[in-house]
Amino acid sequence: MPSEAKILIVDDHEDTLYALESALAPLGYHLTRATSGDAALKEVLRGQVGLLLLDVRMPGVSGLDVVRYMRGVEQTQHIPVILLTGFGPDAELTAAAFRLGVADLVMKPIDPWALRTKVRYLFDAHERSHALEREVRELRARLKDHQDRDDRADRKHDDTGGRVPAQRERTDDDTRDGANDRA
User: Fold this and answer.
1) Where residue 69 falls among pLDDT bands split at 50, 70, 90?
2) Residue 180's CB: how many other CB atoms inside 10 A?
3) Of the four listed, 9, 104, 141, 170, which is most buried by Cβ atoms within 10 Å?
4) Which pLDDT belongs to residue 2?
């Protein structure tokens, strides 16, 4: 069953969005875009985002602000994020990004091959994690149903007073008596 999750690409420059979409198109994932931090948050909160590629510096809500907010919301806290920056190496930015749990920080211009490899790995890992979570929920539900049936059976047994029809144990005398009856 194909995943309904999508990759959200966020940048305030249209040409960067186009370049990122072109680089990721060969992967065959569902791609969507946003041009601001606010729009990105709205899209993420709607659900079905399996990976976020996010520009760090945007007017208004920055990429780091988006990640900070996401990490505080249970439904979005585990979505993998790749931050994109065109301002070169920055130790303070790198430290802040990784403290927030960002999966990677990528410098622009972006190498399409490297980006596709990172995106494929992170997106697929996130999807596998969700599949395992669904399976665990289903198994827990099945276990609960089984336990509920056992509890009902136990209550029914208790309602009868726990009486079970007595069965007489067969003895050696019974065996001899049966043999005498045939003779």
Assistant:
1) very high
2) 8
3) 9
4) 46
